Amino acid sequence: MKVERPFEMDSVLWPLLATVKHPARYIGQEWGAIDKPSGNEAPAVRLCLAFPDVYEVGMSFLGFQILYALANSLEGVVAERAYCPWIDMEASLRSAGLPLASLESGTPLGSFDAVGFTLQYELTATNILTMLDLGGIPLRSADRREGDPLIMAGGPGALAPEPLAPFIDFFCMGDGEELLPSVLQVMAETRGYRRDDRLSCLAALPGIYVPGLSTCKFSDGGVEIRSKQPLPIKRQFVLDMDAAFSPSSLIVPDTGIIHDRVPVEIFRGCTRGCRFCQAGMVYRPVRERSPEKVVDIARDLLEKTGWEEVGLVSLSSCDYSGLVPALETLSVNLRGPGIKLSLPSLRMDAFSVELAARLETVKRGGLTFAPEAGSQRLRDVINKGISGDDICATMEALSEHGWDRVKLYFMVGLPTETEADLQGILDISREAFGILRKRHRRAEVSVSVNGFIPKPHTPFQWEPQLPFLETESRCRWLKRQLGNPRITMNYHDPRQGFVEAAFARGDRRLADVIERAWRNGCRFDGWTETFRFDAWMQAFDSEGLDPGEFANRSRQEHESFPWDHIDTGVTREFLWREREKAFSAAKTDDCRTGSCQGCGFSPTECPRLGREGNR
Amino acid sequence: MSRIRFLFSKRGFAAFVPHVEMPPLIARSARRAGMEILQTEGFAPHPKISLGPALPVGVPALAEPAEIWVNNWGESTFETWKTFLPKGFGLLRAEVVDGPALSRLCKVGEYRIFFRDIPPAESDMTRALDAAIQEEGILHVLEKEGDSIRVVLGQPDRFGPGLFVKAFRGAGLVEGWQDLLIVRTAVGQWEENVVKPLV
Q: Does residue A331 have a pLDDT over 90?
């Protein structure tokens, strides 16, 4: 049998893929990815959803699964995807003179009408520059030409957008299901208009921030942002999760990804009110999906995707009021043998452990819990509503159900932390070990410690971050004190946390630092193996800025913040009130079980308040 | 319950999907097609699927053997299943089998090697492979065939495309994977100087 010269020989990418690590990151063509033939009718808008990290991280992000399906369901819109090439692939593309292109059609990013980034994490900033540059798009909004795509960005990072403002043409504040259809419609309607005019049209939409229309004035009182568009920009959100767009199928990766399962959102938002938690503040109010809808989506997506696992996801899944009915229906209805159900983000109580014990997926391996702080006092400061008794009861329940190991998450450097609080971390870890050890000879506790990073739009947005050397010495002290080989501890590099903190509350001047660091070779700064602290410090230095000013400085009550022009729905007054309560270790109830805490939403916006009004 | 042996192809960029990722990929496609896959016993049950000899990343394959155990295999299942594979993967044939395990039946692998530049002399390649293998009776065929070199190697679970690249690189014939393309054309029994497929 004579074999013809295979078509693979003609692929320009093939020799690159044959030599880089994990080439499957770059191949696309998964089940569920669009494969629209390029017909006669050109789409009105070609959108590339761009995730500024590697494929296996980006493919685990539910948001893009939703937006991809949503955009492709719209008439005249084609949405494709791109992920950030790892360092080896970036070098290969550059030396071959090839652009970064979309997975679906191999179109260079620069040839799209729009490129949409998601900002999930501060330390992906340099990856955005890599993707723009490799995609053939000028880094700065001001340098882009008429034919260049419009660059947009959404996600939690968009709610404190200033460090990235010069690179992004417009930011989308809030839930993509609410924002994207109108954005794409305006883009289709303004096709052929001048870039500036298109951006002005987009600026008229609710939730859209065009930084190019604004200027920043820096003074002792903080940053004042003025804009030709009315400020503040109000975050837009889906009110009814049952009515919200939900994909009828998903892209199923050909290779393993971080969260390799069908994700089904059971609710959005969280009102536990942990004072350090940005997600708990910026995704309010809590909007639950009905258990019937959850079951329908899960069943349907399992059938369409063939995935072997479904995860019920949210910020705190055990808080879902429909959890028991949803789990009961799902466990009898799951299709075929070997289909697993998982429940990430477990609450620390015996109920959660009972639930977990019933789920096949979590029976093996250990469970992870986050007491966050070592003492009751400090847990009250951060409003982490769990007690020492809860922790013991959780460990007892774990042990009874046969688990012999557990992972515990703590933060170091929380406001008001003392040595007694650090001692508390050791006490909890030892106590947990002691409880597991009573039943299990091979008990193991692994403790993960992270430096606290104050985030914008939280009650701790005024607080200084502990200097990283101090964080490091506290982490080291903890590690030295452990004295039990069955209790292990690891901590994140506090230098990375320091850079993250600087950008979390940074202003527009930091864009120059980002670009400088990127030009100095910074890439994948969220990855331990590629993070280069010295290069970052050099970049700050070259731009004459002190990262400590952003990370370690205590702010005055009325300082103007570079995120004040973004209205998440939670008021600054509420955040300050929470901050004051934190310092007197006063707890705030979850409004789902207690009274309304007046965080800022109106009865028409907040399902809980709405219910109260109907009574 | 039916034990199904099937042949699949892996073309284009699909060739970069690692061998170890194939069982979940096959299982997902089978589930989409409505097949109920038997689960293995034991501590960590998983879909019962057996693959032929490992295929390195970046090697397209025309007919790889594999087996899957299915509870509801029917007449039309195969045609349905075909339509649920991701792009780049194809299903060629399938049949219900019994008897020895797949791994015991995969006696040889057959390959075509395409060079980006002028191919090295066959004698050089043979010498390089002989030196790398150091075992008698493994290299059954190495011959020029049109644009390509046809190679048949025994013990495909031990000797495969990785060996070609290593051997050729060692002999200074290529620099690495970027200089050639290897296609696995068949895996099966070696009978009368022909590779006999398993389905």
A: no
B182: confidence class by pLDDT, cuts 50, 70, 90: very high
Domain housing A51: 27-33+42-234
Q: How many structural domains are present in chain A?
A: 2
Strands A309-313 and A45-51: unpaired
Residues of chain B with CATH 3.30.70.580: 2-104
Which overall architecture, per CATH, does domain B2-104 show? 2-Layer Sandwich (3.30)
Q: Is the pLDDT of residue A385 over 50?
A: yes
Contact: B148, A5; criterion CB under 8 Å: yes
Rounded to a whole number of angstroms, the distance from the CA of A161 to the nearest CA of chain B is 37
Q: Which of B28, B115, B191, B124 is nearest to A6 (CA)?
A: B115
Residue of B100, B103, B81, B101 lying closest to B92 (CA atoms) = B81
A337 and A218 in a common domain:
no
A365 touches chain B (CB under 8 A): no
Mean of the pLDDT values across residues B17-37?
97
A15 touches chain B (CB under 8 A): yes
Angle at alpha carbon of residue A174, lines to A231 and A182, rounded to 5°: 85
Query: How far is the alpha carbon of B81 from chain A, nearest alpha carbon, in Å?
Result: 12
Asked if CATH classification 3.30.70.100 holds for the domain at B106-197, the reply, yes or no, is yes
Residue A613, pLDDT score: 54
A80 occurs within a structural domain: yes
Q: Collect all residues of chain B within an 8 Å Cβ-Cβ radius of residue A303.
A: 32
Question: Tell me, what's the pLDDT at A614?
Answer: 47
What value does the mean pLDDT of chain B take?
95
pTM over 0.90: yes
Q: Could you tell me which of A419, A357, A424 has the C-alpha nearest to residue A384?
A: A424
Looking at the structure, do residues A197 and A314 belong to the same domain, yes or no? Answer: no
From the number of C-beta atoms within 10 Å of its C-beta (0-12, 13-18, 19+), residue A603 rates as middle
What are the E-state strand segments in A126-196? 150-154, 170-172
Q: Do B14 and A254 touch (CB under 8 A)?
A: yes
pLDDT band at A1 (very low <50, low <70, confident <90, very high): low
Tens of pLDDT, residue by residue over A64-112, are: 999 999 999 999 999 999 999 999 999 999 999 999 999 999 999 999 9
**R_g of chain A computed on alpha carbons:** 25
Q: Give the pair of three-digit tokens for residue A582.
A: 């934190």
Q: Which of A5, A33, A338 sits opposite B114 (nearest CB)?
A: A5
Chain B CB contacts of A364 below 8 Å: 43-44
Mutate to test the interface with A, among B81, B181, B182 (most CBs of A within 10 A): B181
> Cβ separation of B14 and A27 shorter than 8 Å?
yes
**A249 contact B CB<8A:** no
Chain A: residue nearest B143 by CA?
A2
Q: Is the pLDDT of residue A579 over 60?
A: yes
Q: Do the interacting molecules here have an ipTM over 0.90? A: yes
